[in-house]
């Protein structure tokens, strides 16, 4: 039966399947394939490698706990790598190459921006540029469920943070995004 006791029928990396991934499916993936799945959830190779090596997970909650533990140990460079895996709010392409799954998730997470006025999109783009010039990385926010106006208000509040505080805030937003994407693996 190949690598699986019960072959999954979902999208795992480049494989095509029909059903949601289970924790057993994830546990049984070869390490490089597991790392690739985790990289779709968080763009830090350090985090994804640690998650792949921590398998097997007994259940999803154990996986979520480990994800947070490994995130807590990431260094600045790891967070910056993770941030590069995201497009700017209102844009479709990230600095780093994205898989189809990552592009789809980003589009879902930022779906409210598609309905925004041209003026709102321009304001977000301008403030995004100012933010990136100030901090050296793109504005990261867990956009799920937020309107363009809410995201702009959050950006406007956060742009006045000192760089270290903002890195911590952005890392927490990345952690939220990672959790949502991990949940989507099993949805």
The CATH class is identified as: Mainly Alpha
* Helix-residue proportion: 55-70%
Quick one: CATH superfamily?
Oxo-4-hydroxy-4-carboxy-5-ureidoimidazoline decarboxylase
Category by helix and strand content = mainly alpha
Task: Identify the CATH architecture.
Answer: Orthogonal Bundle
Continuous helix count:
10
Biggest beta sheet summary:
none
3D architecture notes:
The chain is mainly α. The protein has a single domain (23-185), classed as UraD-like (Orthogonal Bundle). Helices cover 61% and strands 0% of the residues. The protein is built from ten helices and no strands. The chain has helices spanning 23-28, 31-41, 45-54, 60-72, 76-84, 100-109, 111-114, 118-135, 148-158, 163-185. α3 packs across α4 (60-72), α4 runs antiparallel to α10 (163-185) and α8 (118-135) runs parallel beside α9 (148-158). The longest helix is centred in the C-terminal third of the chain and has 23 residues, at 163-185. The two termini are 24 Å apart. The relative contact order is 0.13. Residues 1-17 have low confidence and may be disordered.
Topology diagram in text:
Blueprint: H1 23-28, H2 31-41, H3 45-54, H4 60-72, H5 76-84, H6 100-109, H7 111-114, H8 118-135, H9 148-158, H10 163-185
Helix pairs in contact: 2-3, 2-10, 3-4, 4-10, 5-10, 8-9
Question: What is the gist of this entry?
Answer:
It contains ten helices and no strands. It has 187 residues and is mainly α. The protein has a single domain (23-185), classed as Oxo-4-hydroxy-4-carboxy-5-ureidoimidazoline decarboxylase (UraD-like), CATH 1.10.3330.10.
């Amino acid at each position: 039966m190949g690598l699986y006791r019960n072959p999954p029928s979902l999208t795992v990396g480049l494989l095509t399947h029909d059903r949601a991934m289970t924790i057993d499916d994830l546990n049984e993936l070869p390490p490089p394939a597991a790392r690739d799945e985790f990289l779709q959830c968080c763009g830090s190779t350090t985090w994804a490698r640690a998650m792949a090596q921590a398998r097997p997970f007994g259940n999803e909650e154990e996986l979520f706990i480990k994800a947070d533990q490994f995130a807590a140990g990431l260094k600045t460079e790891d967070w910056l790598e993770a941030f590069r895996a995201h497009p700017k709010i209102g844009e479709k392409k990230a600095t780093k190459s994205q898989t189809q799954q990552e592009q789809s998730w980003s589009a879902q997470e930022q779906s409210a921006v598609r309905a925004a006025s041209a003026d709102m999109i321009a304001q977000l783009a301008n403030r995004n540029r100012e933010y990136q010039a100030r901090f050296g990385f793109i504005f990261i926010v867990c956009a799920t469920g937020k309107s363009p106006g809410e995201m702009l208000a959050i950006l406007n509040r956060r742009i006045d943070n000192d760089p270290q505080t903002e890195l911590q805030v952005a890392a927490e937003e990345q952690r939220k995004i990672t959790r949502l994407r991990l949940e989507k693996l099993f949805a």
